[in-house]
Design brief:
Elements: H1 2-24, H2 27-32, H3 42-46, E1 56-59, H4 62-65, H5 70-77, E2 81-83, H6 91-101, E3 109-113, H7 122-125, H8 129-138, H9 141-144, H10 189-204, E4 208-213, H11 222-235, E5 238-241, H12 246-249, H13 266-283, H14 295-310
Parallel strand pairs: 1-2, 1-3, 3-4, 4-5
């Protein structure tokens, strides 16, 4: 009887410790106590933003966070935006990010970069994913276990609402890679199902979903354009394929890519951001927040951004 009681007390104490660690390592707690690096996970980063002031978010994988610069949207239009893209992000990762955003923001526009729609989403296929999701909810420490590292990292500069500046130029030829065809490369079915879930979240939270494909010789072709245009029509959402708009955007792959045509550098991102900004300004009614209570901190961020642009 004593052994059973001792074991019960031990496990109760263990659970209390794990729950407590989950709280201490959660994004909101860490940011509230100013103990984390700016490059921590997206829910942690957004916890620092003034609640319900972000009007535009960018979702996707690395093609998203290398193609849209929030400081430049602020400079040109006063749009408060945040780039939530992540390296190698899958559709379930992206859905998780959007749900995290909705905990303290209600963006009006969700810019969804489309490359991840063609990436196999291992998390969706894993049989144990259901169990891991339950564990994350019951014991948050299982989700935030890596956040302890942030307690010992210095705050890094050069992080601008999800965008980092890359001056690197690793060029490739300006070849014609969007060759017209009637072929259709459909997105992965499971990914389309998750995208429809994201679309539903957008509708429920008053946001417009806008699909866009960033410039990338590595990842895009006309058959993919046809596949993406097809789902945009099915969902009745806007689709911007920048790869077909170079007469307007004028990406030069000899100067505007950081890795031989896969991702844009800051020079390319500036061009694609200018196009997106004008598109939003022409087609949507988004608040200019340059005369609001967040203006001071955003202007300070823009000053830092401009200095880094100059100091290569």
């Amino acid at each position: 009887m004593k052994k059973i009681l001792s074991a019960t007390i031990f496990f109760l104490i263990l659970i209390i410790i794990l729950v407590g660690l989950g709280f201490l390592l959660s994004p909101n707690y860490l940011f509230k106590n100013q103990m984390v690096n700016k490059k921590s996970d997206i829910s942690t980063k957004l916890a620092k933003e003034e609640p319900y002031t972000i009007d535009i978010i960018v979702l996707g994988d690395s093609e998203s966070y290398t193609s849209i610069s929030p400081p430049e949207l602020w400079r040109d239009y006063g749009y408060a935006s945040y780039n939530c893209g992540g390296i190698g992000a899958t559709l379930t990762d992206i859905q998780d990010v959007y749900q995290a955003v909705l905990s303290n923001q209600q963006p009006k526009i969700v810019l969804f970069e489309t490359n991840a729609l063609y990436r196999v989403d291992g998390r969706r296929k894993e049989a144990d994913n259901f169990i891991s999701d339950i564990m994350h909810k019951i014991l948050p420490v299982t989700k935030y276990h890596d956040n302890w590292k942030m307690l010992f990292q210095d705050t890094r500069k050069g992080y601008y609402k999800g965008f980092t500046i890359s001056h690197t130029i690793d060029p490739c030829d300006n070849k014609e890679y969007m060759i017209m065809t009637d072929d259709v490369e459909n997105v992965i079915n499971d990914n389309y199902d998750t995208l429809k879930d994201i679309y539903k979240l957008c509708k429920e939270n008053g946001a417009s979903l806008v699909l866009y494909s960033a410039h990338s010789q590595t990842n895009y072709n006309y058959a993919k354009h046809n596949g993406l245009n097809k789902i945009a029509k099915e969902l009745n959402v806007d689709y911007i394929d920048m790869n077909l708009l170079n007469d307007d955007i004028k990406i030069d792959y000899t100067t505007d890519t950081r890795d031989r045509g896969d991702h844009l550098n800051v020079y390319g991102a500036s061009k694609s951001t200018a196009y997106i900004g004008k598109y939003i300004n022409d087609n949507y009614n988004i608040t200019d927040r340059r005369n609001t209570n967040i203006a001071k901190s955003w202007d300070e961020m823009l000053d830092e951004y401009n200095k880094e642009l100059i100091n290569k």
